[in-house]
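Lab notebook, page 48
Experiment: co-folding of the full assembly
Goal: obtain a model of how the components sit together before planning crosslinking
Operator: M.T.
Materials (sequences as entered):
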Amino acid sequence: MNRALRLLRRRLVSSIPVLLIVIVGSFFLLELAPGDAADAYLLSIGGGDPALVQALRQSYGLEGSTLSRLWLYLTSLVRLDLGWSVIFNRPISGLILERLPNTLWLMGSAVALSFTVGSALGIVAGSKPGSWRDRMLSTGSLALYAVPSFWLGLVLIVIFSVQLRWFPTAGIETIASGRQGLARARDIAWHLALPVAALGLIYLALFLRMMRTGMAEAWRQDYALAARARGLGHRRIAVFHIARNALLPLVTMLGLQAASMLGGSVVIESVFAIPGFGRLAQEAVAGRDAPLLTGIILVSAVLVILVNLAVDMAYALLDPRVGANEVTA
Amino acid sequence: MNTISLSRRTLIRGSALLLVSTALPPVAFGQSGSRLIVAADSEPRNLNPAIVASNGVFFIASKVIEPLAEASFDGEGGLAPRLAIAWEGSDDGLSATFRLREGVKWHDGQPFTSADVAFSALQVWKPLQNLGRLVFANLEAVDTPDDHTAVFRFAKPTPFQLIRNALPVVSSVVAKHIFEGEADIAASEANNRLVGTGPFRFAEHRPGEYYRLERNPDYWGEGEPKLDEIIFRVLPDRAAAAGALEAGEIQLAAFSQVPLTDLDRISKVPGIEVYSKGYEALTYQLGVEINHRRAELANVKVRQAIAHAIDRDFVVRTIFLGYAETATGIVPKNAPEFYNGDVRAYPFDVDKANALLDEAGYPRKDGGTRFRLRLLPAPYFTETRQFGDYLRQALAAVGIDATVVNNDAAAHQKAVYTDHEFDLAVAPTVFRGDPAISTTILVRSGTPAGVPFSNQGGYENADIDALIDKAGETVDTTARTELYKQLQVLVAQDLPIINVADWGFITVASSQVKNVSNNPRWAVSNWADTELES
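Observation: model returned without errors.
Model output:
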């Protein structure tokens, strides 16, 4: 336990410079992007006169130098103030707190779907590499992995919403339905089914392939041979010996995929009109809302760090060899 | 040591549970009888049409806040009365009198009076509104001799023709009692919690999800509104909007939110109607902006060659799928008051374009290329981007090698209108009922850098500038109209900008929705007579 705590502390301390780099890096990247919030706004309203342009720039605080704005941002961040969104005219922390839960539901469900079903199917494929089931699943997953998520989302909408009318085409819940409690939860789950499938199926393919490859290799290991020599059944070896060992890299992958899924949610949230974190990021980029985007990137970085920390902790618990060197080093 | 015990059974159970959870029984789409659900592709950050006169704002806000008059197919002078019932300009152009509707109440129960009009004009339209700043630049005072008369007084003669044509766009009236005393009206929270006199009250905005408007039972229009509720559902993805319409989750998508490429298919779906009417007073224009600082493009023969190199019919047929008209100049055909078709024409003629370029002194070099340039298509519409690709090929056919530079909106604004880092740009400009509102700025010199949809190509023509200035102070309607007709001749001759096509948008709606597209600004009008047949 002590070991895990020391690992946790060490990781938390090392994440501080990471966050700082993320903040400063994203701030300067945004500075490099051509056009600012006033440019984006002027276009959205169809133009205006020179005095309006000047007034906008002033009211958005775009007149100072980059460094002075960065300093202002960092000092307010120390006070845990994420700043004010130019495009929404609201405090950023409130906006993020409002949108984040939708994305966490979407991502969490997609991770759960892809990890459980992906590894389960991977076990089916990997328990007999080369069998027809393996070939079918491998080919299918490769095809699925090659599909862009926005396209998959649209195809799912056409089949399950437009043709079969089983699921709604968009949104996080039924509009102005007044549902509460369990009924609302059911409504949200019903709305999330297609976006979760669109986001999760692609990662499902990834987990399936990793599991399958890991198992295919493990069959050649000595311990597999030993298990067979002990007269254990094929299925028993596959599930309890081979799959268990092949599962470890998947756990690492889970952490890595969290960041990529956050990126994928930008697209999926747009296709399914889910008011989430990803769409907020898209709106921030289009509107050149630098403080909002920096806030979003910062919170995303914290999320990814936390997920990876959880994965590391889980890994350390699953495999005692992991982290031992790091802690004693 | 902790171990995980993962059995196949556990895995199958887990997976099955997860699958079952995603296949919950379908819940009925709860929709009341006269709730109209409409697709919206954006959420304006300031929803007050008195401050932001843009189609995105009007689309939602025009149902809540009304103008003095609205565009009309059959009304006198193309206008239908709203909060004003009569209007007249003085002969000297120094005043305009509006007779206001009586018995109108704000949504909070307060009476609507001329004081609200005076406050809106002097405190909001003139100092704050993106278009009103120009139209009301010389507005000095608004007299209110009684509660239902407002007399606008101008410091310099202001053509009443302009005021009248601009009414639907610039005259959204806000309540004085709501905004009075606000230190900064533009930043007021009331701009996003609208109180108006319109047929619908602003009920709710769930960011990222929807706007909900509900019936105003005290509306002045007899028997109106017909709908109980309008919901503007935020659907940023266009393909998803088409799906939602087909699935019956929304009943209407305006502003071509269903992409043109989907129209052929969707028009065959039973119960869905496609309307191409209803956008006549908000015509968009596809134009090629030219940076006249480039020596080659400063040569009028080169500009004329480019105009001849563009096959306008092909553009209308292939890019707009027929839902557009070829353009002859800076005023579209569906502005008959001002349109002048008797101007120099540039029929598609590659040989002539080549000859003009040779004459201009830019012969084809070894590889067949005369010169290279940068082409920046505006990113806001699929059609502007597609036209960018077409134009590159059309230019290649006459030996001009164009590199297409694609930017997002903010970057495009900076590159073209602020930094002038372009040679040709594709712009979707808008004709807003009168050339003085947003058209002459495209060719008049002297606009400082940073102003979008203005002459940022460095074009200067003393004759054109003089004509525009004269029209700006000509009070007589016939004389003023004639000046704008002359302007079209000069522009077509010298081509400071090349107009290619004029297009309106498409509305796709369930056939249950009645009275769709029945005025020239339908999508951005009040929808008081819109009905939903059960």
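Interpretation: The radius of gyration of chain A is 24 Å.
Next step: discuss with group before ordering constructs.
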